[in-house]
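Quick log. Single chain, no ligands specified.
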Amino acid sequence: MKFYSGFSLKNEKHFFDAFLDDSVYCVAGFSYGAIKAFEYVKEQIENGKRVDRLQLLSPAFFQGRGEKFKRLQKISYSKNKDKYLSQFLKGCFSPYKGQDIELCETNLEELQELLYFEWILGALHSLESKGVVIEVYLGGQDYIIDPKAAKEFFTQTATVTYIKNANHFLQSNERKI
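-> predicted structure:
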């Protein structure tokens, strides 16, 4: 299994052990990492490599958000990166208590890629037509992305597991803040 981490994160795979297929032919990604996992699988398939399953955990999905929202995110990040990341992580765990998480160095270009990435239905269908099973996991109380819009979009091409009371980290049984 190949796993891609979320924006500014590292070593968070353990949060998703209950969902992950540990097969050597599985690729998974969380949030921003879902974009990277998708791009990796596309490349592998184009090069004749075998991938059986693509698992997208709370995939970054901002195509319904306007330019004003995206610009505000970039400005906030640029003004105070540490404060931005602190608020971002709080939102990831909300409405439940935050947990210890490892951070990695990040930059504005990665944030822009995350905010402006467009999921293309045809590209997902293409993977599916080549035998890749696509699974998407969404939390109904995800305050980072719009889980309802993501569910509506991904249901057209993937098996979507929608966990009504889960947050961005797909946690649903933690103590409330």
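Residues 44 and 50 are 7 Å apart (CA to CA).
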